[in-house]
Amino acid sequence: MVNNVTAELRQPGPDDGVMGRVGRFANRDAWTAEMSCSIERALELVGTRSAVILMREAFLGAHRFEDLARHTGLSDALAAKRLKKLVEGGLLTQRPYREPGSRTRMEYVLTDQGRAFFPVLVAMMRWGDQLENSTAPIELLHSGCGKRLDIAVKCAAGHVVSSEQTDATIRTRPKADSQP
Amino acid sequence: MVNNVTAELRQPGPDDGVMGRVGRFANRDAWTAEMSCSIERALELVGTRSAVILMREAFLGAHRFEDLARHTGLSDALAAKRLKKLVEGGLLTQRPYREPGSRTRMEYVLTDQGRAFFPVLVAMMRWGDQLENSTAPIELLHSGCGKRLDIAVKCAAGHVVSSEQTDATIRTRPKADSQP
DNA sequence: CTGCTGAGTTTGCTTCTGTCTAGTCAATGT
DNA sequence: ACATTGACTAGACAGAAGCAAACTCAGCAG
């Protein structure tokens, strides 16, 4: 069972969840992560527990420093540091607000780039739901119809795609044309 | 523009990507993360850069220790430590294999739980693609039709759902019935 | 003028993440 | 018999991540 039916076009694993690799990527050694993997770039911004749970709270509606710090359980010092990094990274932006009888302060709101992080958060939550001894404390529902949220990996043609049905390749063109 | 059209049923932010909160969760203070958030449970297993990029390589077809270590660029020591944790966490499992003229060794293959991590990886990759100065080196294609992969947040009824159209609530029942 | 509050910053400390070098251990090649 | 190789383990270290407690700073309440 160690791959004796190999070699057609892609060279997949036995029946594991492994993707195929095509094009220049058929030889995995043609690519090193230092050539900048999108996943690693993402991790530079949200590769810590504190960053992710602050984003969770931002989506849950926390804007003010105190709420963000308290709801995440982070220390003030770390919350401040991480929020600064999230602002620098363009996931959050600061917006002045003023409560009556108080000076102007800054609140943290999601930018477009921060909002685009939503699928990652949902994917992580759904995956975490499936783990052992999970009681899934938070549930996400579509406010339109009340049904539970889930994520789906799909191709541009609308097919639901598993990892086995996925081919990885190396993009050569900058990013002009649409689909091969 | 600081929330003067508030209060209907949910209490959303202005027009930020903020979710609504309903039920017991309408009061955010009714929930603390120590009550075990799925996201935080997920982060305990894959909350480090090394864990995530090892999973990336597992999906890209690396099974053997040397490939996993070299392709991720991690040191042997860290690769060994992290792989052990991923095995303990149930994302990978060890399977004996034997190359001709060599002793029996262990290779690392994805478990069902590891395969279920695929959407998280795709979501992170797609989000990373959208960042500044991204050249999106790896591209994922549906091997069936060749179209590019993407992720979608949908509800059980099939509607595409944005964070604004999402309500968060606290699950009270263990996890028996299907949909509210 | 004094105290209080919200939003931080600073300092000191521990733990975790990660690297580098060296060493182990089994089996095969020479 | 000896060196080699793949897959690790052990030890020493730098640097981030994280905490707790104390400090700052602006403006409002008294």
Structure description:
The structure is a homodimer. With about 180 residues, chain A is α+β, with helices and mostly antiparallel strands. A two-stranded parallel ribbon of chain A has the order 1-6. In chain A, about 30% of the residues lie in helices and about 20% in strands. Chain A contains six helices and six strands. The interface between A and B is large, with 107 and 107 residues. Strand 6 (about 165-170) of chain A pairs antiparallel with strand 4 of chain B, so a sheet runs across the interface.
- CA-CA gap between termini of chain A: 34 Å
- Unreliable segments of chain A (pLDDT under 50, ≥5 consecutive)? 1-13, 175-180
Largest sheet of chain A: 2 strands, parallel
Mean pLDDT of chain A comes to 86
Radius of gyration of chain A: 21 Å
Shape type of chain A: globular
Tell me the series of helices and strands of chain A, N- to C-terminal: EHHHHEEHHEEE
**Backbone structural class of chain A:** alpha+beta
User: Percent of residues of chain A in helical segments?
Assistant: 25-40%
Task: State the assembly state of the protein chains.
Answer: homodimer
**Care to count the β-strands of chain A?**
6
Percentage beta strand of chain A: 15-25%
List the helices and strands and how they pair.
2 copies of one chain form a homodimer.
Chain A (H helix, E strand, L loop, with lengths): L19 E2 L16 H9 L2 H11 L5 H8 L3 H13 L3 E7 L5 E7 L1 H4 L2 H12 L8 E5 L6 E7 L10 E5 L10
Helix pairs in contact in A: 2-3
Chain A binds a DNA duplex (30 and 30 nucleotides) through helix 3 and helix 4.
